[in-house]
Amino acid sequence: MKVKDAMHKGVDWVNPDTPITEIAKLMREHDIGCIPIGENDHLVGMVTDRDIVCKGIANGKFDPSRALARDVMTDGIHCCREDDDLAKAVHHMEALQVRRLPVINKSKRMVGMISLGDVGRFAPNELLAACVKTVTAHH
């Protein structure tokens, strides 16, 4: 199976100056746990619900009404290609210990997102078990 057959299609991204409150509303509205961050037509990072809590709220100096994506985002981006085998993407998620990966096409444009939930629906049981064990391990 290919990544494009399992991924969520049509993911949007926001810029680093997007207020955290807007990002949180997008997460709630779309029932998702991360928002890719892009600048100058390139992905530059990711904001997860965990980033908002651990890098933001848990930091005593955090003001959610003034905070921006750049204040809590994880810099850098790891991704997979839509034509990759699902197993390759899963092994990449395991190596990085991440629950989600942006998916790009041949033109390096983001076309979707593959999540641990997608893996749960489409991957063979052995691959799923190994992924869940590795990705959810404390790190």
Structural notes for this entry:
The protein is of the alpha+beta class and 139 residues long. The protein has one domain: CBS-domain (Roll). Helix content is 38%, strand content 22%. It has six helices and seven strands, in the order βαββααββαββαα. The chain has a four-stranded mixed beta sheet with strand order 1-7-6-5. The protein has a three-stranded antiparallel beta sheet with strand order 2-3-4. α4 (86-96) runs parallel beside α6. The mean pLDDT is 88.
- CATH superfamily placement: CBS-domain
Under CATH at level 1, the class stands as: Alpha Beta
Biggest β-sheet: count, sense, barrel? 4 strands, mixed
Spatial arrangement of strands, main beta sheet: 1-7-6-5
Radius of gyration: 15 Å
N-to-C SSE string, H for helix and E for strand: EHEEHHEEHEEHH
Tally of DSSP β-strands: 7
- Supply the helix-strand structural class: alpha+beta
Q: What fraction of the residues are assigned to beta strands by DSSP?
A: 15-25%
The overall pLDDT, averaged over residues, is 88
Q: Number of helix segments? A: 6
User: What would you call the shape?
Assistant: globular
Q: Which percent range fits the helix content?
A: 25-40%
